[in-house]
């Protein structure tokens, strides 16, 4: 009977076992909580690491795909400066005959009059219609008396007939719009029956033009 009492666990030992077990459970719970918090805190998306193999097109702007000629404006070769605007080559705009089909009094026939005639008094000043370079100066032409031919930009050539050229004017001279190049001579030659006048012609690339395209007289 006494031996059973010796082997029987005492209340003190049982309490110790419970305390140890409780301590173990607390340790396990603490570890579990720590692991959970650690996992939550490490759930942030990791930063992207540059591997050095960057695609060169990533930083390319949309406009970089445009060809060099995309922003190039089409070429405008037309000279629009005031110096290329024609002026009437005489002081008074007294249009005697335009470039139209009409009766030629001198030759007594109907034909297209090539150029424009400006009725003027003998000795009236004749001006360069636009900037240019003197191509030729003729003083005694049987049909047209004195003739001055001037070359301009864009293949334009102007011709002044029935004029007395200025004494100083010569081939190769540069003239400006409005410069006096001669005077109206007495009617003679192919248009003698039309009286004193300046006969004015315009050519472009060697093709006769209607002077009114540049002077805009008849439409005013």
Salient structural properties:
220 residues; 13 strands; 19% helix
Task: Write structural notes for this entry.
With 220 residues, the protein is of the alpha+beta class. It is built from three helices and 13 strands; from the N terminus they run H-H-E-E-E-E-E-E-E-E-E-E-E-E-E-H. Helices cover 19% and strands 28% of the residues. Strands 1, 4, 6, 7, 8, 10, 12 and 13 form an eight-stranded antiparallel β-sheet that branches. The N and C termini lie far apart (149 Å). 19% of the residues are buried.
H/I helix tally: 3
Radius of gyration: 52 Å
Which percent range fits the helix content?
10-25%
Q: Class by helix and strand content?
A: alpha+beta
Record the SSE blueprint:
Blueprint: H1 2-7, H2 11-41, E1 95-97, E2 101-104, E3 109-112, E4 116-119, E5 125-127, E6 132-141, E7 145-151, E8 156-161, E9 163-165, E10 174-175, E11 180-184, E12 197-204, E13 207-209, H3 212-215
Antiparallel strand pairs: 1-4, 2-3, 4-12, 5-11, 6-7, 6-10, 7-8, 8-12, 9-11, 12-13
């Amino acid at each position: 009977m006494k031996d059973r009492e010796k082997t029987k666990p005492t209340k003190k030992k049982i309490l110790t076992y419970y305390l140890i077990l409780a301590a173990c459970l607390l340790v396990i719970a603490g570890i579990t909580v720590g692991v959970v918090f650690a996992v939550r805190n490490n759930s942030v998306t990791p930063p992207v690491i540059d591997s050095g193999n960057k695609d060169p097109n990533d930083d390319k702007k949309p406009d970089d795909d445009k060809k060099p000629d995309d922003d190039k404006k089409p070429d405008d070769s037309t000279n629009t400066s005031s110096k290329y605007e024609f002026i009437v080559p005489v002081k008074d705009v007294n249009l005697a005959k335009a470039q139209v089909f009409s009766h030629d009094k001198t030759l007594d026939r109907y034909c297209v009059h090539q150029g424009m005639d400006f009725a003027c008094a003998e000795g009236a000043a004749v001006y360069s219609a636009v900037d240019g370079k003197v191509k030729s100066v003729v003083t005694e032409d049987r049909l047209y008396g004195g003739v001055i031919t001037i070359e301009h930009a864009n293949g334009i050539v102007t011709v002044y007939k029935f004029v007395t050229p200025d004494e100083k004017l010569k081939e190769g001279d540069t003239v400006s719009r409005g410069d006096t190049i001669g005077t109206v001579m007495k009617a003679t030659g192919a248009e003698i029956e039309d009286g004193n006048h300046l006969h004015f012609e315009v050519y472009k690339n060697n093709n006769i033009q209607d002077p009114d395209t540049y002077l805009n007289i008849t439409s005013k």
